[in-house]
Design a protein that fits this description.
4 copies of one chain form a homotetramer.
Chain A lengths: L5 H23 L2 H8 L3 H7 L3 H25 L4 H18 L1 H7 L9 H24 L8 H21 L7 H10 L8
Helix pairs in contact in A: 1-2, 1-4, 1-6, 2-3, 4-5, 4-7, 5-6, 5-7, 5-8, 5-9, 6-8, 7-8
Chain A binds a DNA duplex through helix 3.
Chain lengths: 193, 193, 193, 193
DNA sequence: TATGAATGAGGGTTCATTCAT
DNA sequence: CATGAATGAACCCTCATTCAT
C-alpha cells in the first residue's frame, strides 16, 4: 500500500490513461491496463474517477485546456495578421504532430457525442482566435473584407483536416508555409491586366 | 428458414450493418442487432462475413467506392477550374451532410488503423481529383503557379475539416460559396496600389 | 454445446436458482453458482433471464403460484367452516415445512420492496380464501358475527408468523390442531354462569 | 481527528448503522456510508467493531434488548389477563410500527442464520411473557384450560405475522382490538342453546 | 443455406478490510 | 484514538463466435 498524495495519484492516473487510451482507443482500453500503467490498484482508479467515462472526459478536458492555452499564447503578440495566421497554423499543426495521442483520445466514441459540449467549447475558442486575427487584418487594411465568421471556419477546418491527416494517415509532410500561402493569396492569378 | 439468394442476403446484411454501425458505432454495435435488423439469424451473418471486422470493413469499402464515384463524376465535365473547385467542395459537403453515417462508420476504431489502407486509397483518389483541377487551372492560366500537391492537400483538408464539423458538431451552417471564395481569392487585399 | 429446448433450459435454470437462492440467499448467491448448478454457461442464464433480479422474481412468481394453487385447492370442497379453517392452516404449515426454501427466497431483499407487488397479490389471495371460509361460517350460523376482514387478517398473520418460526428458528413443533382450537374457541372460558 | 470518548464513538456508530442498515439493508449498506453517517472515518469503524457482521450483530442485540424491555414492562402490572393480552399485542404492534427499521435490520441475511441464537433468545423471552399471562388467566379462572405453550406460540405468531404485514406491506390498518377479540372469544358462536 | 442456443473470457465496477501516517 | 488512500477478489453482465440441428 504505497501512500501518495491524492493529487500525485490523480496525475499518475491521468498520465497512464493518456498512454493507454492513446494506444488502444477508448473501447479497447480497459481499467486494468490503466491501473497497471499508473502503478495503482483497480480500486484506486475509482477513488479519483467515478468511472471509465469520467476518467476519459477529465483527461480530454485537461489536455484540451493545455492545448488551447499553448496555441492561443502563440499568436497573442503578433501584430501582422498574415504572420499571425501563419504562426497559428504552424503552431497548431506542430502541436498536433507532437501530441497525436491527444487527438486519438478525442476520437469518436458513442457516435461523437462523447464529450461533445467540451469539444464544441474548445473548437469555439479556437475559431474565436482566428476570427480575431482576421478582424484585425481587415481593420488594418491588410485583408480584404471577407465574411469573418466563415473565413475563420474555413481556416479552422483546414487545420482540423490537416490534423486528421497527421493522426490517421501519419502524413507528416504537410507544409504550413504552403498552406498559409494558399489561404492568404488564394488560387486565382492576380493583376490579370 | 427464409430462402433468399446469397447476394440478396449479403446486401440486406450490409444495409443493416450500415444502419446499426451508424447509430451505435463499431464498438457498441453488436452482431445480434445487425442480424435482427437484417432479418437474418446470427449464424447467418457468419455465412457471408468472416467476423465483425470483416463485415465492417466490407461495408466501408463498398460505401467509400460509391461515395468516390459520385463525387468524382460531379466534376468530370466542368471546364472552368474555379467552378470545378466550387462544385467539388459543394458536392462533397452536401454528400457528407446526407450521409453522415458513412463518416461515422469510418470513425476511428483501434486507433484509426482500422481499414487504414482502404481509407488512404480513398483519400488519395479524392486528392487526385483536386490536383487535376488545379493543374488544369494553372495550365489554363486561371490559377497562379502554386505547388499543386500542397494546394490539393489544403483544399482536401478543408473539406475533411468541414465534414468533421458537420458530423461531430452537427454544424450544418457551412457555406460552400464562402469557402470557395476564400480558396480562390485568398485573404489578402489585391491591387494595393 | 449441449442443445436443449428453450423451455427445458429455462426450467433447469429455475430449479438451480431455487437451490442456490435457498442455500445462500439472494445477496450471497451468484450467477456463476446458478449457472454451474443448472449445467449451463453464465451467458446462457442471460438468454432466459434479463438479469439476476429478473431470475429471482420469475422464480418467486412461479413458486408462489404453485403454492397458492395447492393451498386453495385444499379447502375448496370442505363444507364445515371450522374444518376448513383447520385444514387451511394445516395445509399451509405443512406446505411451508416442506418448502422452507420458498420462503427463504422470498426473504427481504432491498428492504422488502423486492417483488413487493407480487407478494401483496399472493397474500391478498390467501387472505381472500380465509375471508370466504369465515363468511360461510357466519352465514351458516357456525361462527359468530366477527369483522370478517379483520378476523381473516388475524388468522393469516398466525400462519405467517408460524411459517417464520418454522423457517427461521426451525421450530417444527407447531401444532395446527391447538392453533385451530384457539382460533375457534378463543381463550376465554365459556358459560360462566 | 475529532477526539471523543470510546463509548460516545461506539454509540454514534451504532446509531449510524441503524440508519444505514434500515434504509439499505445489510447487503446494500456499506461501511463507507456508515462511517460518513457516523461522522467518523472508515478505519475508525474497525476500532470499535471487528467487521461488518460484528457491527450489525451488536446493533441487533442492543436494539432487541431495548425492545424486549419496553414490551415486557408494559404488561408487568396488569392484573386482568385478558387486558394484559390486549395490551401486550397493542404494545408490540405499535412498537413495531414505530420501529420498522428494527425489524428490517433483523431481516434474513445468510438464510436467516445471521444472529439466529440471539433472535431465538429474544423470541423465547417474548413467548415467555405471553405464557405467563395465559397461565395467570387459567389460574384465575378467566381463561379455559388451553395448552399454555401452544397458545402462547399462536399468539406470538399472530404478532409476528402482523409485524411482517406492517413492515413488508406497510399495512398499518391492523386493529389490535379486533385481534384481541378473536383470540379471547374465538370464532365459534357461543351458548347455542 | 439457415438457425439460434450455447459458450466463456473478459469487461466495468464495488467494497470489506488494511495499514502507514 | 483516528485517518483515508490503497488493495484486489469477486461481483454482474456482454457479446463475438461456434456448431448441432
Amino acid at each position: 500500500m504505497n501512500k501518495r498524495s491524492g493529487i500525485e495519484s490523480k496525475k499518475r492516473i491521468l498520465d497512464a490513461a493518456m498512454r493507454i487510451f492513446s494506444e488502444y482507443g477508448y473501447a479497447k482500453a480497459n481499467m486494468r491496463m490503466i491501473a497497471k500503467s499508473a502503478g495503482i490498484s483497480i480500486g484506486g482508479l475509482y477513488l479519483y474517477f467515478k468511472n471509465k467515462e469520467d476518467l476519459c472526459l477529465t483527461l480530454m478536458k485537461s489536455r484540451m485546456n493545455d492545448f488551447a492555452d499553448k496555441t492561443m499564447e502563440a499568436v497573442r503578440d503578433i501584430s501582422d495578421p498574415a504572420e499571425a495566421i501563419d504562426i497559428f497554423i504552424e503552431m497548431n499543426l506542430n502541436y498536433a504532430k507532437r501530441h497525436k495521442e491527444l487527438i486519438l483520445v478525442q476520437g469518436r466514441e458513442h457516435g461523437f457525442t462523447f464529450g461533445l459540449e467540451m469539444k464544441k467549447k474548445f473548437f469555439g475558442k479556437q475559431r474565436g482566435v482566428i476570427e480575431g486575427i482576421i478582424l484585425r487584418g481587415i481593420q488594418a487594411g491588410t485583408f480584404r473584407k471577407v465574411n469573418v465568421k466563415e473565413a475563420a471556419k474555413v481556416i479552422f477546418s483546414i487545420i482540423r483536416g490537416f490534423i486528421l491527416s497527421i493522426v490517421v494517415e501519419a502524413d507528416s509532410l504537410f507544409s504550413p508555409a504552403e498552406c498559409s500561402d494558399l489561404i492568404l493569396k488564394g488560387l486565382l492569378r492576380r493583376n490579370v491586366k
